[in-house]
Amino acid sequence: MGASKGAGAARNGSGKNAGGGRSKTSRPASSRPASPKEQKKYQKIAQQARPRPPVLINCIKAFLTGGVICLVGQGVLNYFIRIGVKPPDSGGPLAGVMVTLGALLTGIGVYDVIGKFGGMGSALPITGFANSIVSPAMEFKREGYVLGVGARMFQVAGPVIVYGLVTSVVVVLIKMAVMALTGKS
Amino acid sequence: MAQSSQVLLTENRRLGKQTVQFGHPPAIAGFASVVGPKEGQGPFGKLFDVVKEESLLGEKSWERAETMFMLEASRLAMRRAGTAREDIDYMLAGDLLNQIIASDFAARELSIPFLGLYGACSTLAEGLGIAASFLSYGIARHILVTVSSHFDSAERQYRYPLEFGAQRPVTAQWTVTGSGAFVLGPTGNEERTPRITHWTCGRVVDMGIKNPNDMGSAMAPAAADTIQRHFEDTGRGPDDYDLIITGDLGKLGLKLATEVLKRANVTMGDSFTDCGAIIFGNDQDVHSGASGPACSASMLGGPLLKRMMAGEMDRLLIVPTGALFSPTSFQQGESIPSVAHAVVIEMAPGEAEGRP
Fold first, then answer.
1. Nearest CA distance, B218 vs chain A (angstrom)
2. Which residues contact B31 (CB under 8 A, 6 or more apart)?
3. What's the CA gap between B83 and B95, in Å, rounded?
4. Is A34–B217 a contact, with Cβ atoms under 8 angstroms apart?
5. Are B203 and A31 inside 8 Å of each other by CB?
6. CA dist A74 to A30, A87, B102, Å?
């Protein structure tokens, strides 16, 4: 029992001074719920102990990741224009290609790795939108195609769609109000 | 053996406000740990009984795989204890899934009278404490205590789909995939065997932490509260234990628990650590550490008890910690109440002396 770091010695003396760490002045343990003041005090300690995320590095990584995705998008756009699609009409096919790409990378298990590196840089482009729809669809396939895939597919993207639509309606209302006031149509 | 008479009391005693000292301290007659590949690659990889090569185990869902982890650990622990399924009077089990389905489904296979437990990641200590009480009061001969968790089943319930490309915050913890199982009985198979001598049942503590990605901060005050209460009730201190180990506070939670105890004038030494802070290596990209019921259970059912059996430790205080929240409570803006229970495990003679 040589390995037990002199614990036996400490134990033999436990009658007199139970544990070297405890002193007579030790505050007795509480037996009531924590007060708001105690909670605040602890939250401050916790806040100070919390490690800081590397914000600057994360920003650079997000910028690079988002930049690369946009670069690919620009390449695709240029291709469509070169084969004769009119620039105003090229948004649709471009979105189609990028969504397919995002879905494909999610399906083969690559997009979550990109997301871990790139953070918002990979979440914000439309490829991230595809990832947010395909990943729950894959995850909840085991619950069936209706209650699993169908119901859970928009678990992450749902709020984005809802508030995207709400915002667009608000913007249109503002535009109409401005036009009515200025008399232009 | 001056110590043995002290360990093998014949009467149950209630100490202070929250602690029980067991008469005829029940032996951990058999124990086992079964873990997933990531746990196997960690610093304690070789000390787990079974390390799986992949974590779906050929099942059709992560939930079924979790049940398989629990079943394998349970069967291994029963075999080690030399007990058949029929010899076990109760199975006490719990996990993190809704309605504790991993345990329910394992209990269906084992067909042992079943009590389902929920204490989140503290469930191991809840189970060991209740089982030791049952045995100590002579209303059972053998009890199986087992808990499990699974990274993939926990992620889909509590967080995001696996393939979703999100960044994990620096305070996040990684759910341990695996299970630990323990068969408690009157005697151990070896000459010296680990016995459960004390149990300090914790109260729920809530310091108003709301971030589900920072469970270490939420649970640290509960761990500190139970540890301090245990010392007060038993008259012991940090130096009376070879190791004091919490469940899954992680690196940040361990730091905070140490700080909270220090402010209460309880100075924890080098013997104080946390299963979640050490089960994975620093190179395994788990941020603040590990979590899950299987975190403390696989550590106890593997490295910790193996070291005790090898004579490296004599007296252990294990304090599994649980964050008692659900996705619903978090979405409704509630804070995260937490609990921790402490169990004392001590090496003692395997034969039960003077047992009726």
1. 9
2. B77, B80, B180, B181, B182, B183, B300, B301, B305
3. 24
4. no
5. yes
6. 63, 12, 49
* Cα–chain center distance at B159: 23
pLDDT at position B167: 87
Q: Judge whether residue A111 has pLDDT over 90.
A: yes
Average pLDDT over residues B311-325: 97
Identify whether the C-beta of residue B85 lies closer than 8 Å to the C-beta of residue B110: yes
Q: How confident is the model at residue A6 (pLDDT cuts 50, 70, 90)?
A: very low
Picking from B124, B139, B129, the residue whose alpha carbon sits closest to that of residue B245 is B124
> Domain spanning B192-348 has what CATH number?
3.40.47.40
| Cβ-based neighbour number of residue A134 at 10 Å | 23
Interval B92-133: pLDDT, tens: 999 999 999 999 999 999 999 999 999 999 999 999 999 999
**Residues in Cβ contact with A155 at an 8 Å cutoff, skipping those fewer than 6 apart:** A136, B161
Distances (CA, A) of B291 to A87, B96, B206, B295: 52, 11, 19, 6
Tokens of A177: 């109000």
Host H or E run for residue A36: helix A36-49
Predicted TM-score of the model (pTM): 0.90
The token pair at A131 is 């990832």
Q: Is the dihedral of CA B340, B311, B237, B280 positive or negative?
A: negative
**Residue B322 near residue B149 (C-beta atoms within 8 A):** no
Rounded to whole angstroms, how far apart are CA atoms A74 and A87? Answer: 12
| Identity of the residue in A3, A25, A113 whose CB atom sits nearest the CB atom of B265 | A25
Residue ranges in B30-174 assigned as alpha helix (H):
37-40, 62-81, 101-110, 123-136, 151-158
Q: Determine, for residues A116 and B167 on separate chains, whether the beta-carbon distance falls below 8 Å.
A: yes
CA A172/CA A181 separation, integer angstroms: 14
DSSP B162-213: TT---PPPTT--EEPPEEEEEEEES--SSSEEEEEEEEEPPPPB------TT
Domain layout of chain B by residue ranges: 2-185, 192-348
Nearest residue of chain B to residue A51 (CA atoms):
B170
Supply B4's token pair. Answer: 């043995």
Question: Which residues in A lie closer than 8 A to residue B163 (C-beta atoms)?
Answer: 106-107, 109, 111-112, 131, 134-135, 138-139
Classify residue A52 by its DSSP letter.
Answer: P
Chain A nearest C-alpha distance from B131 (Å)? 25
Residues A19 and B338: their CA atoms lie apart, in Å, by 27
What's the gap in Å between the CA of B84 and the closest CA on chain A?
A: 33
- CB–CB contact A122 B165 (8 Å): yes
Q: How far apart are the first and last CA of chain B?
A: 21
- Cα–Cα distances in Å, from A80 out to A100, A130, A144? 16, 21, 38
CATH of B2-185, one of 3.40.50.1360, 3.40.47.40, 3.20.20.190, 2.40.128.630: 3.40.47.40
